[in-house]
Amino acid sequence: MLDVRDIHSYYGDSHVLQGISLRVGKRESVCLLGRNGAGKTTTMKSIMGYVPPRKGTILFEGRDITRLRTHEIVRMGIGYVPEDRRIFPQLTVRENLEIAARRDASGRWDMASVLELFPLLKRLLDRKGGKMSGGEQQLLAIARALIGNPAFLLLDEPCEGLAPVIVEELKRTILILKEALPFLIAEQNARFALEVSDRGYVIEKGLMKYEGTTESLRSNAEVQQRYLSV
Q1: Per-residue pLDDT tens for 31-47?
Q2: What is the pLDDT of residues 119-161, one digit of tens each?
Q3: Rg (CA), the chain
Q4: 64 within domain boundaries
Q5: Which of 57, 181, 193, 226 could cross-link with 31 by S-S, CB 3.0 to 4.6 Å?
Q6: Alpha-carbon dihedral sign for residues 117, 105, 148, 30
Q7: Residue 62 lies in a domain
Q8: DSSP label at residue 51
Q9: Considering the entire predicted model, what is its pTM?
C-alpha cells in the first residue's frame, strides 16, 4: 500500500530524515515509534508532500507520489490526521465534516456512518470546533479524514495531550478502523501504538533503528529502554 524508500528530508540546511524506509501492506496497521523530535512527524509530512524529500522515493499503491502536491496525494486516497488536528475553529462539527466529505466508489463513509463510529460527535454537531476539548477535537480530526473516504490513513501523534479516558475511546475507535482500512500511526505512546498495530518501526534522530512485529518490540528490553524510554 505504502512504500517509503530511503528518503532524505530537510528543513532548510538541517538534514532531518537520513535514509528512512518503511512499508505498509494492504491489510496492515503499522506504527512508527520514537521520542519527541525523533523524526516521526517529518516522516508523515514527507509522505503527504508538506516536506518533500530531496532524495528517495515514496510509492502509494505502486504509484510514485514523491513530487506530488499535498492535495494531489489526498485525492489519490491518503487521509491525514495531523499532530495539531487543524480543525476549523469557527465552523461547527457538522460543517467541519461537510466540507471534507467526498464520495468514492465504495461510499463507505458518510455523515451517518461516521457519527455511528463517533457517538460523542453526534451530540456535538452544532458546537464550534474552537469550543471543543482537545479530545473532542482529536475525534473530529479523525472523523473528518474518514468522511473523505480514504483508502489509507496517516495518524500523527493521536494520543498527544489527551486524558486517559479519551485515549481509551480512541483505542476502541482505531481498533474498529483496523478492520476497515490500513494505516500508519506515529506515536510516542508505545503501549497504545503497539496495541493497535501489527508491526512497528523505531526512529531516532532521523534514522531507522529497529523494525519488527509488535510482539518483538514489546519483548525487546534494549529497544524499549534505549529508544522508547519505557
Answers
A1: 999 988 899 999 999 99
A2: 889 999 999 999 998 889 999 999 999 999 999 999 999 988 8
A3: 17
A4: no
A5: 193
A6: positive
A7: no
A8: S
A9: 0.91
